[in-house]
Each structure stands twice: as C-alpha cells, then as structure tokens.
Amino acid sequence: MSPLEYVWAGVMAVIAGPAAFEIFGVGIPITLLMVFGGFLLGVVGGATPGLAGPFLMAVSLPILLSIFGFTPDALLPVLGFLVGVMKGATVGGSVPAILFNTPGTPDAMMTTLDGYPMAQKGQAGKALRTAHFASVSGDTFSDLVLFTCAPFLAIIVEAYLGFGEKAALIILSMAFIAAVVGVSPMKGMIAAFLGLLVASIGTGEDFYSRLSLGTEVLASGVPLIAAVMGVLILGEVLVAFENMWRERRSQSQIKEVAQSGDNHLSWKERKALMPFIGISALVGTIIGALPGIGSTLAATLGYATGEKMHKGPVKFGQGTPEGIASTEAANSAVSGSNLIPVLSLGIPGNVGAVFIILAAESIGGFNPGPTVFRFTTSEVNPELVIAFGLFTAMMLANIFNWVIGGRIMAACGIMSKIPNQVLLPMVLLLTLTAIYAQETSFVAIYFALAFAVLGYLLRKLRIPTLPFVIAFILAGNLEHAFRQAFAVSGGDPWFLFKSPMSLFFLALSVAVVIFFSRPKKPAANKAVEAERDA
Amino acid sequence: MHSRRVEIWLAIFFAVFAALTAFVWAPLDSETAAIYEFRRQVNIGDAMLPMVAGSGILLFSVVHLMLQLRRLQDEDVDPPFDRLTLFFYASFGGLLALSLIVMFWAGPLALALFGPSGDDSVTYRQMRSTFPWKYIGFVLGGFTLVFGLTSLIEGRIRWVRVISSILAVLGLILIFDVPFDTILLPPNGDF
Amino acid sequence: MKFATFKSAAAALTMMTAATGAQAQNWEPQGPVKMMIAFAAGGGADTLGRLLAEEIGTRYGWEIIPENAAGKGGLTMAVALKGEPADGHSIGVTVSEATTYAIQTMPNPPYQLDDFTYLSTLAGTQMGIIAKPSRGWETLADVIEAAKAGEQITVGAMSQRLADATYVLGKNNGVEFTTVMTGGGKASLNAVVADDVDIAWSAGAQTAAVKAGEITNLASAEVEPLLMQPDAPQVQDFNLPYDFGVKFIVVAPAGIPEEARETWQHHIAEILNDPESKLAQFTNRAFAGPVVVQGAELEALMQESYDAATGLLDASAE
Q1: Do residue B48 and residue B89 come from a single domain?
Q2: What is the ipTM of this complex?
Q3: Which of A443, A456, A473, A442 is CA-nearest to residue A346?
Q4: Residue C208: closest CA among chain A residues belongs to which residue?
Q5: pTM greater than 0.90 (yes/no)
Q6: Using CB atoms within 10 A of its CB, is residue C69 exposed (0-12), middle (13-18) or buried (19+)?
Q7: Same domain (yes/no): B160, B100
Q8: Cβ contact (<8 Å) for A221 and C71?
Q9: Which of A296, A315, B74, B94 is buried most deeply by CB count within 10 Å?
Q10: Tell me: domain C3-125+246-316, CATH 2.60.120.1060, correct?
C-alpha cells in the first residue's frame, strides 16, 4: 500500500468500522461513538475540581477493556475514547476557573486570572466562549503538527538507530524528564533511578525472580496498573486528604454573579484574538513535544507572551479575553504534540501519554514506537492503519469540540459544586475497584496502596513522581535494548559509546542535567514556580 | 525544596539505601551477575539493571548532599511531616484496614450464617458471581470506606453523606458489575 | 513416538471420544472459571485463549474470565496455576515448552511435568530460521559457510531453548554464533527486517513477509516442511536432530475430576473441529490450522517433548 492508501485505510477504519447502532439506516461507527463519549466525560470531569483527564483515562481503562476485549478491533474504540477524554478535560478545566475562581485542572490556573474578573463583570458567557474558541484552535493546530511530524521522526529513528542508539535515546529522554520536572534535577534523577529499581523487582530473564527476597508476592513482579495508578492518582489523593483534614473548613461558597454584560463573541472579536491564539498555540505545541514538561508551564508561558503583546484598554489580569485566549490556546496545544514522543519513539512524555501506552499494552497488537510507521507496500502493516485511525479519532474529537464543546461547557458549571471531601473518598474507592477489575486479586490492591504511600512520600518530600513513573514504564525496553546492544557488540564494555549518534545522545543527557542544575533565580511568576516545585 | 536539614537527611537516606541495594541486595538476590560468561559469549545478567539503578541513586544523592551542604540560605518551609500527619494517617490507616477486612470477609461470613446449609451447602467460590452474595462485601466495605473517610475529614457525621456514600457504591456496581459478566468486584476474584 | 505408544494412545482416544457423547454433559462449572494466559495480551497465545473462552461462553453458557499471567516463558503462569484448586474451575493456556524445558535447567524447579493435567492442544507453530533474501543466503548451509569464513553472525532467539539450540547448531557445525535474545511474536522478525540481527528464529509471524518475498526461511525447525515454504531444508539435516515446533496447550492443575476433564476436552475438540468457529478460523489465519491432541496421546507427546529437552540440554552442556 502507498502512504496515501494507509492514511485512507486509517480514516476508513474509523468511519466505516463496526457500527454501534443505526439511525435511519445509517450506521453509527463504534469508534465515533466512543470518541464522543470520551469527550463528554472529559469535559464534565475536567470541569469537576479534583478530577483530571489522566485520572478519568485510568479508571475508564478496565471498563473499556471489558467492553471491547483484547482483540485488535478494540484498539480504535478504546484509544478513541481516551483521546476524547484527554481533549475534553483540557476545555472542561476552564469552566470552574471562570465561574468560581477554582481551576478544574491545574493547567487552568492562569485562566482564573482573567476569567473570574470577567465573570464578576457579568461576562462569564463571553469568557467561556473565548476559552472554548482558543482551546479548540490550539488543539487542532497541535494535532496537525503531530500528524505531520510523528511519522517522519519515526522513520528516521527506525532507519538510523540500532540497539545501542535506541538505548542511548531512552537514557536521554529520561534525563530530560528528570531534569525539567520539579525543583531539583538531582531529585528528579533519584526518582528516575528509583523507578528503574522498582521495575527490576521480579522481572529479568532468569528463572529466579530477582530482588524478590525469595517471596512469592514479589516473584511475579509489580502489577503495572496498580503501581502507576497508586503513585500518580492515589498518592495525590492522600495528600489532598491530609490537607483537607488539616484545613477542615467548609468550602467557602463563591456566589455566582448575575450575567448581564456583553456575552457574545463576534467574528470580529475572534479575529482580533487570533494573534494571541497563534503564538500561544505554537508555544504549547513546542512545549508539548518535549517529554516531561506539562501543560501548566505551556499555559504560563503563553500567558506571559500574550501579556507582552497586549496593548488593549483592559490589562491582563483584570478580565480581558486576550488573557484567557493566550492561556487556553497554549495549554490545549499541548495535548496533540505530546503524543509525538509516544508514537514516534515509544517514550511517554506526560501522564496522559502514560495511559495511552498502558491501554495499547493491555490490549496488544499496537506497540507505540518507531516500528509503527513502517510503510510496507507488499503486506498491510496493521499498526500503521491503527495510527492513522487514531489521528482520525483525534480530528473527530476536534470536530465535536468545535460544534458542541461550548454548549457542554456551559452546562458543566454545576460540577464544581461537589465538595472535595465527598468526591475524593469516592475517587479512592473507584480507583481501587478499577484496579481490582483489571487484576482480580486483593494483592493488586495492597500493591496500589503501597505505591500510594510511595507517591504520597515523594510528593511530601518534593521528589517529582513523573520521572519515577516513566522510568518504571520504560525500564523493560531499556534493559532489553542494553542486553541486545551488548550481545550484538560481542560483549564490548564500550558498546554504548561506539557510535557517534549514541555518544551525542549521552553527552546531551549529561548537558541537560547540568544545565538545569544551575542555581535558579526565584521565578517571576508564582505559577511557574508552583509547577517547578511541585 | 525543603529546609537544608530535611534535604540533607533525605540525601543520606537515599545514599545508604542505594549503596546497600547496588552492592548487597542486587548481586545477592539475582540469579546471574551483572556480567557473566555463558558458552564463551559474554552477557548482561539480571543483576545489571538493579545495580545500575542503585548506583544511579547513590551518585545523584551524593551530589544532592554536596549541593545541600554548600547551600547557605535556608528557606522558611514547614516540615514535611508533623504529629498531625501521624495522627491523621493512623486513623486513616485503621479505617482503610477495617474497610478492606469487611470487604473481604463479609460475603463468606454472610453465606456461612444465612446461606443454605446441610446437604445444599455451597462454598463462597461457587456463589461469588451470584446475587446477593457477590455484592455483600463490596457494598459493606465500600460504604465503610467512603462514608468513614468523608466523616473523618469533615470531623462530623452527616446523614446526607450516608446517602451520597450509598449512592457512590451503588453507582460503582452499576458501572462495573451490572453490564459485564467478565468483571469481578472485589473480593470475588480471590475465591 | 513409538508405534506401541501411538496405538494405545489412539485406542484411548477412540474410547474417550465414544465415551464423551454420553458423559460430557454431566459436568458443569459452578460459577465462573478462571483462565490464566501465560503470555501478554495481543499475542498468539492470548488470542487463542480469549477466543476459546468466548466460544465456550456462547456455546455452553459457561462464564470464563480470562486473565494474563505473563512472564518468563510461561513459568509465572504455571506457578500460579499449580496453586489453584484442581476442580476444573481454573485452567491455563500456555505453550508446551513451558512445562518441559525450563524446569530441567533449574536446581529447584517450582513445578514438575506431572503437576498438570494436559487437556488439549490448540495449534502449533511454523518455526523457521529466517533471514532477508538480500543477504544472499538461500539455506542454513550458506550461513554456516559465511561463519566459517570468519563473518560474525548474530542470531535472534526468543526463548532459552532456542538460544541453546543456536549454540548446539553452531557447535555441531564447527562455528560459533552470537545469540541475541528478542521478544516473542513479531519481535524477532522485526529485528531481522531492521538489520539489528543477521538471522533469527521465528515461530510463524514471518508467513506474510515470506509470501511477499521480503523474508526467506533458511530452514524449517519443525519436523515437517513449512507450509509457507515447503522447499526450505530441515534443521535436522544440519546436525540438529530435534523438533523445535511448539504447541499451544490448555492445562489444568493435576488431579481434576475425570468428568470435568472429559467435558473440557470434549468442548475444546468440538470448537476446534468446527471450521466455522472463530477459534478454528484464527488458527488457520495465524498458525497452520487447529491441532487437536488430547488425553493419553497428549500426555505421551508432553513426555516425548520432555525427553527431547533433556537431549538438547545434554548436547548444549559444555
């Protein structure tokens, strides 16, 4: 098949795939329905403070697997649902930020700066429309970059990198993530190596399970889903429990202001917002493509850039649509491009991508990485069809977002009234149930709780959790690449330093860590500092 | 960043743990050494990855220690843990343990007490996907967890939370159990 | 297999088939059945297991819950299954070498061949040694020639048995190969395609690429010629007198009730023998069609494979 035929096959896999049901004789494809369902869940969940996209993706996974099973046919509906959630959550997060001054997702923090003042002026509708318009534009732009870049990057990687270079590239990505996330690269690196250590428990090639201390519990290794959800979600929940318990004050209710101001967003106004959206979308896309840096930083940078460009009567921070547009375009533009490292290298750069990889791994038949983009002509490469199907699903999510996203957002204000002390215990039970549904053993629950404690301790000690999780996930690939490179070299101890390419990657890893270790000036912006020190 | 003292202790802890892991635990608790020769071919063994991981932690915790020792100014940060933390997690841990015990044993116990006896007696393994036995543990344990935790955090017991907790547990049953034959609610997969 | 064994196996099989008509319906699982699959989701063993579960569910109304217990070439699953009650409510899907090969290399094996009841085979591999045609090698003889001329040949293998086989192959032909462990499924094929290794063992994933002319089988490692390339020579002709074919099998803990065993065997055979079943269709697509060996014949087959493993291990000892 030619490349264009692959693209077409991918599109057809979605729109001509199995139908869920028929309306007036026209079949509604199941993937389309799942993208829509995921998008809906994402917006509602994103609008609920305390829930976030990755959490929703994580708990949906076992349910999706039960519905669709483990055949290759399950890939597109499941992945479609997950990208729907991812996209929905980024727009949903701005709703409580604008209406109640509480960001629904961390990356909507900067949206409160102008969104809430606008709501107080009676312009909440206009603010929501601005957020929606900027968000969808940024997201769509970022997706287009993903569709064009990922295949080329993957082909280059596959064509020029052998076992040794691939091992060096994984090291570089881990070093980069460890160095940029959190306040101290040293602690990031400690977290990453800790992830490798935990991943080596009970794994390996020998029949004795290493580091199992001779116990049966450790001999079969750490259950992946339980560990990842424990550290990322339950750890966060534990910290929130403690904080709520300490504060123990009833949530101060913020009154909604009667909305009487100018709530429309005309085409002329939209056009005026375009420069802000364009710059922020670019910033968000670039940041998103780098592993480890999140949408919060993109939002902050987008806002800061917009602030410099802005020359209107209402200043940034006092309730101007440009401020919302700059933030929302940037944080939404992250969601497409942060799949670039996943799809082209198999390296997840952020939490959302972690769950995409987990889904693909659980179902099987699709291994995100450079081998996906092999344009074989004599036989069909099914993984490539899935990849283009995934792109199609993302575009469908964007279309839903353009057409009805704004309306769903407007209806979601009520979600932010659920108090956290009621919601988070439910989240705990939901997560444990979801883990159990997948692993069907109480042992998995104990593992999840143990990793929850680890996640809690890491957070309290300000050691970033993301390098831990990503190193944990990549450890198997890394060890495999090492063993293979070493075996192929015939047992040369310098096997990793033999090619200029891997030397370059390794030198860059060291440079990144040293660069980010230099003493930091206090950040001008509190939000940057908050994300950095998280 | 925490205060200098906390960071120094943290670095020392990791350095000691990592040294033990890299040089004692990993080599002793693996079948093959980091590098081994088998039939004239040199291979990487199972001990390699944990030894590399341990050495990495050791290296970076020592560097962190040195950076912290050189750090002069001390930021005014609250200590990461205090007695309130301990108190909260002691009560939380107790509640969690209670919920899990209830979740695990309530079903089998109810079956032993109220299930068919004599010649018709059945094991819980046989009834683990039959209504109502399959729900007993999850409903009681799940309710204990959600309601207990909300009440612990709020510091008081409210009837409205009883209702919301019951609804949450029923909601989970609706999501996970009712539509699927292949999903087992906790604790039914363990029998 | 000795002819006597075969005859008694055949007799037993006939008797069993006759008996199952009357007895098969006597046994029903009480509650759900746990099916443990010894390999990761998405692979051949996984799909076989899940399709079997689905077919049994729709045909007989049994509730079968598949789960993956992957790791160490089937060892993880076997250990877990051994600990399950032998009541017909816990079964495993694995490969024949999981209970015949690795345990013989261990000083304290966690289980033995007779810790399990062997219910049925499902399908067999099409194991070959593959290379890119562009390397100019037509058969294994050319590769051995190249190695003798001093070229370092890297060989991808996906299990310890095949790594051992690679060593014995080299030893018996007076050369040395460098073994690189690859994953199962398509991984060894991918390694050959990307030029990461020179040649590799592949269990059937190479079929489409062979038909497209992108990959060639240098030798068949089965006892019979490969269906996709019948003209490839046999590894047995290169001083490697073993069968490297692997069977996918359904097992249960040893000592399950006779009625449960017969019912399981009956149901599995019925599904495999029905060309319309999804399971049978999948074995045609991904393997060389369904393989139905059960009862005493299967036990004899496992024993034979165990003894062959002993032979290979002795040959590979230094």
Answers
A1: no
A2: 0.94
A3: A473
A4: A379
A5: no
A6: buried
A7: yes
A8: yes
A9: A296
A10: no
